[in-house]
Design brief:
2 domains; globular; Thiol Ester Dehydrase, Chain A; alpha+beta; 6-stranded antiparallel beta sheet
């Protein structure tokens, strides 16, 4: 496996543009932080995700730096990346208030895309609307670095026993 990875890396370095190499370095730095246990999951490292959880307010906020890896053909953040970030911030807010031995999984996620994802960072926040015994309803928003909202989401999550 190491030889294969080294060949892939050498090929990318040899043939990649400066933008390609910058994006690759960003991804590799994130994976390195995951390997060094600075991020709990690979997706956190890939996105360079920073979390702030407020258990009292039943809310969470995450911030990520933009990277061309996430862009669609129009040069803006792919909607699937925005959806992943919203799902992550919403799930994190819920997990923070659940008792030990329980988790939440996405049942339904509805996203309204409002503006293009451009800029230096993307900030997402989520707040719990309703916490029942089997489901949680939550609301999330995504903002680009100039403060403009790019997406609004609502979701329902099932509470499950681990």
């Amino acid at each position: 496996m190491k030889e294969t990875l080294q060949q892939l890396l050498d090929n990318c370095i040899e043939r990649g543009t400066e933008e390609d190499l910058s994006a690759l370095a960003h991804v590799l730095k994130g994976f390195e932080k995951k390997i060094d246990h600075k991020y709990p999951q690979f997706i956190d490292g890939l996105l360079h995700l920073e979390r702030k959880i407020d258990k009292e307010k039943k809310s969470c906020e995450i911030t990520v730096p933009f990277n061309p890896v996430w862009n669609n053909a129009l040069g803006i953040v792919h909607g699937g990346i925005t959806a992943t970030l919203l799902d992550t911030v919403m799930g994190t807010a819920i997990h923070a208030i659940l008792p030990e031995g329980y988790a939440a999984v996405t049942n339904q996620l509805n996203i309204h895309y409002i503006a293009p994802g451009i800029g230096d960072t993307l900030r997402c926040k989520a707040e719990i609307i309703h916490h029942g015994s089997k489901t949680v309803v939550i609301e999330g928003e995504a903002f680009r670095s100039d403060g403009r909202k790019i997406a609004h989401a609502t979701g329902t999550f099932f509470i499950i026993q681990k």
